[in-house]
């Protein structure tokens, strides 16, 4: 299941974070990072998935 989350995080970073932690502070932070730059959103999403 983590492989699927990582692939979704590469395509749509907030979706990967949502599947991992739900709607919370990390989800909104990831949306902000994705809006500011696509790469920071991906890095944050993969980090959240790898951490948990």
Question: Brief description of this entry?
Answer:
This protein is an all-alpha fold and 52 residues long. 87% of the residues lie in helices and 0% in strands.
Write up this protein.
The protein has 52 residues and is mainly alpha-helical. It has one domain. 87% of the residues lie in helices and 0% in strands. The protein has helices at residues 2-11, 13-21, 25-36, 38-51.
Return the string of H and E elements.
HHHH
What's the count of strands? Answer: 0
Number of helices: 4
Task: Give the CA-CA distance, first to last residue.
Answer: 12 Å
Number of domains: 1
**Average pLDDT reading:** 93
Content-based structural category: mainly alpha
* Shape type: globular
The percent range for helix content is over 70%
Largest sheet: none
> How much of the sequence is in beta strands?
under 5%
> Runs with pLDDT <50, length 5+?
none
How big is the Rg? 9 Å
